[in-house]
Amino acid sequence: MKLQAFIFCGSGGKLSPFVQPQVHHGVSNGLPKALLPVGNRAMLEYVLDWCDQAAFTEIHVVAWHEEIEQIQEGLLPYLNLRSEQFELVAKSLTQSYHSHHLHKPKQINFIASKCNTTGESFQKELLEKITGDFVLLPCDFITDIPPQILIDQFSNRDDDNVAMTVYYKNSMENIDKKQMGKQFFTIYSENSETDKQPVLLDVYAKDDVAKTKYLQIRNHMLWRYPNATVSTKLLNSFIYFCTYDLVKLLSVDDSNDKNNNGDSTNEDETNDVQPIDLTEIKPRYFKKDSKLIKDQINCKRSLAKIFRDLGRRSWQHSEERETLGIFILPDVSSFIRGNNLNSYMESNRYILKIKAQSATKHGQTNASSSAIGVDSVVGQRCTIMEKSNIKMSAIGQGCKIGKRCRIAGSILLPNVEVEDDVILENVIIGPHAKIEKKSKLTNCYVEGYYVVEQRSTLKGETLTKTHIDSEDEVSSNVAYSSSGEEDSEEYSDNYYDDEEFEDDGLFER
User: Fold this and answer.
1) Is 50 exceeded by the pLDDT of residue 479?
2) What is the extent of the structural domain holding 379?
3) Which of 47, 385, 449, 472 could cysteine-pair with 403, CB 3.0–4.6 Å?
């Protein structure tokens, strides 16, 4: 099945202070979200590896125009290695009868976005690039689910499905629900009594339900879907498999609507056989083409809100509309998004556990395991002095670890300096930060370039530098980060952000 892939690289507001929403005095205190390391690899690389398994026809990376060059430059080593690996495999298969299975990796295109929301970017900058069915992806997920499972599920969708959303349940025990961000009531219909696939109906923020003290569900939805299910455990994966009909539905151009063309004739007014335009035939196999009714949908918001509105569209009108399918990942699989600090830490631990299991399975042992465990990764050009112990941690390149240090369950971004007799437990240290002698940090986050004074004992603290910007800098930052309904993330990839959802209960009858 031919699919185009679009990967959205959000700003990562919930990963502060390790992302770079702004630059102070020419020095960046963090990295673009897509380049944040997970197991010493940029999180975007895991998504690109997943896309390579799916053999998508095109792969596009969409990011804020001020970060796209840095993301492209940061991926150069990965892209070069990707090409070298293909050449090595190609050489080994030249004498084989199975060389027809060899597919050259698809070129990765980078799209600079100047829009403030993912929905607006999708409508104004991406729709014109879409030629068939496509998939929208985040830049921060890690999973052991092969993409073909999702593609097969999408291929078996109902005729009236305009898209398929993917949801998952949190399988990581160490992720605190309170630190996962906003939680939601997800309403969907399993359609167990019919042959129809499950469909997404509505989503409500838990905070809004808590304010009103009850969950208000519209009667019209219950009339059409009387056996709807309400779940508080489902999480949005931000993975959307979409048909080409969605492009027609959200396009601001009415050229596809024949009724808007004054020269077009109604089929009832003429008996002439219209010629078939072969360019309009899409690989939909045996799917029936339903009559598409264009409704006005506000796209100046996050994609999650657009697909929520598409879910409501299936039942809130008197005439039937296309439905929005929902696929819930099975519990036996692993899926995690590093879209906040807590889950980002768990993403690293998940990768490190896989590394440790792989090393144990192949009988690999580290001669200096007392210093660096098999469940840890250490970047290039690192200096680790004697009697230091590192367990279940990711140490970035260029870091300096002093004598008698103990680091457990932590992430050190590049060029961190840790002096002698320092204890770090479950901490994230930003790039170029410095931890002075005999300090002990537990469950802390330290911003890049920050200096922790010697003999500091801190627990559960977030250490950031104080910046005083000029008025011009402040005004530009505010304009960049506050646009319409998006609050903390100008290029958000999360549901609702901090917006209050107002349900007026009105719908077309």
Assistant:
1) no
2) 371-475
3) 385
